[in-house]
Amino acid sequence: MKRRDIIVAGAAAAVTQTVVAASGxxxxxxxxxxxxxxxxxxxxxxxxxxxxxxxxLTHCLRRLSTGDxxxxxxxxxxxxxxxxxxxxxxxxxxxxxxxxxxxxLCVDVCESCxxxxxxxxxxxxxxxxxxxxxxxxxxxxxxxxxx
Length: 147
Fold this sequence. Notes:
Layout: H1 3-23, H2 33-36, H3 40-65, H4 72-93, H5 99-118, H6 125-146
Helix pairs in contact: 1-3, 1-4, 3-4, 3-6, 4-5, 5-6
C-alpha cells in the first residue's frame, strides 16, 4: 500500500467519524456507535494520533533527506503507528468483534512509537506532539484491550 493510500484511508475514516458523530448514529441500546465500542475518546485519540504522526513522519523524512540519520528509527516507529491507528479506528466505528485484539496491538505499537518519539521530544516539536498523541491512544485503548 502506498503512503497516499494510507492517507486517503485515514481521511475516509476521519470523515466517517465526523458523520457518525454529527448524525448521532445510534447502535443497539441507544448509544452512538463509537460509544458502544469504547467511547468517543478512542476514536478521537486515534484521529489525532494519525494527524500528529503524519507531521512527525514528514519532519523525520525531511531531516533524513538532509543526511541527518538521528530520526531514522523514529520514522520507522511512526510509520508502524500510522499503519495500525486508522485500522483500529475503522474497527471501533464498525463495532467489530476484532476490536479488542486490534486495540491490544495498537497499545503495543503506540508504546513503541511513544518511546522513540520521547527520545527526541526535547528537540523536535513534531516528535513531542506525536509522543503525546500516542500517550492518549494508549490511555484510551488499554481498557478496551483489557476487555
